[in-house]
Amino acid sequence: MNRRRLAVAAAALGIITLIGAAPAFAYQTATLKGTGQARVYSNSTSKAKVGAWDDVSDHNPVYARYYRKASPSTQRSLWNKAGGGTESYSGTGSSVLKAKICESQMAQPDDCSVYVAMKY
To answer: Would you say which domain of life the source belongs to (predicted)?
Structure first.
């Protein structure tokens, strides 16, 4: 009987641990309404990752522009050409200082959000 209680308690603890891990999937964003988001995941010293999320299936690719702490004067770009409802990801690296999202426009200036400072 005690083994059964121990097994139930261990299973409950495992479920609670998984639920407690859910906030690890949180991210910070720079958003352009009707276009998408530049998403910054795990903005720590060496594990920060950037995502370029496309909200709309309009055949206009989106891209994230961002700066990392390790090279603050280097503007980086991450393109997402896969279409609406998709996200492209960068590799991991140093913390992201700021990011914005842009939509590529044919024969006119690209539409971009403002840069958003990211917390780390």
So the answer is: Bacteria
